[in-house]
Each structure stands twice: as structure tokens, then as C-alpha cells.
Specification:
The protein is an alpha/beta fold. The protein is built from five helices and eight strands.
Length: 161
């Protein structure tokens, strides 16, 4: 049986493999301290909170919706629902997030999920040369450009606030 730390790293390895398979670089960094929030990640990385890409999972009529939002943004779910023409968008419960991403809340990556998830990319992130996103667990992040993040996720660009 794998050690607990080994099983926690499985999502990170999946993210690494997915990045490479999609033609992106493996820029995953693993930290000793946890970085489960945009503020914590920005502090460790020495960057603006706005350059942190939060991978937020929502539920729309029983299906997941992944919104990649700036760490400085509060997602306006009513605005997003109007733009998408969907029903009400609700923040997903932790077990729903784990089921659909294979990753725990606070460590969800934009990629590396068991099945593709409809994804929205916060257009305000375009203003940053380098973005940082969760890499599958609470101790890991990866860097990427906006253009590469858009390409590898197949996301729709939308204002989310």
C-alpha cells in the first residue's frame, strides 16, 4: 500500500504528464508549506495575488464547470450564468470537486482531470506575463502564460466579475 504522501502526489504526477502531453512545459514546483489559497501562493512565489489562477469548480445542473479566475477576483456567478445562458451556478461541494477532478479543493489544477470539464478563463488574467496555477495538491503550483493556459484547457474567455 502506498504511503499517504505518495498517494497525495498522484494528482501532481497526472498534472505533470498532462502538461507535457498538451505541449506545455512541466514547470511544477512543490513547496514544503501548503499553498491552498491565492494569498498563500502569492506570498511564497513573490508575485501579485492577481497572477494566481484559482481553479474553482462550480455545479450547473449536476455537471461541473471550472472557472479559472484571478486570485484577486470574486467570481460573479450570475454574470457568468447570463453569459453562458445556463441555470444557476453554485459552488461545488468538496466531494463533487474530488469526484470530477481527482483533486481536492485548494489544490485543483486547470488540467489533469479524469474527464474534460467545461472551462471558463477569466479574461482579466491576460494582463499578466506569467500565471501560477495549482498543480493537483495543496503543496504544488505551476507557471504558464495566458495563451498556453487558454490553449491547453480549451477554455472560453469571459469576464467573470
Amino acid at each position: 500500500m502506498p504511503k499517504a504522501t505518495e498517494s497525495l502526489r498522484d494528482p501532481v504526477q497526472t498534472v505533470r504528464k498532462t502538461l507535457l502531453a498538451l505541449g506545455a512545459k512541466d514547470t511544477v514546483r512543490i513547496f514544503e508549506e501548503k499553498v491552498p489559497t491565492a494569498a498563500a501562493a502569492a506570498s511564497v512565489l513573490g508575485c501579485e495575488v492577481a497572477a494566481i489562477t484559482n481553479s474553482l469548480v462550480f455545479e450547473v445542473d449536476g455537471t461541473p464547470l471550472l472557472i479559472l479566475a484571478s486570485g484577486a477576483a470574486k467570481v460573479d456567478t450570475a454574470l457568468v450564468a447570463r453569459q453562458l445562458g445556463t441555470g444557476k451556478i453554485r459552488r461545488a461541494k468538496p466531494d463533487f470537486v474530488l469526484e470530477h477532478t481527482g483533486q481536492e479543493v485548494g489544490g485543483v489544477a486547470p488540467v489533469g482531470h479524469p474527464q474534460p470539464i467545461r472551462t471558463i478563463l477569466d479574461a482579466s488574467l491576460k494582463g499578466h506575463g506569467v500565471l501560477w496555477a495549482g498543480a493537483g495538491d495543496h503543496n504544488s503550483m505551476f507557471s504558464i502564460t495566458y495563451e498556453d493556459l487558454l490553449r491547453i484547457t480549451g477554455a472560453a474567455e469571459l469576464p467573470v466579475r
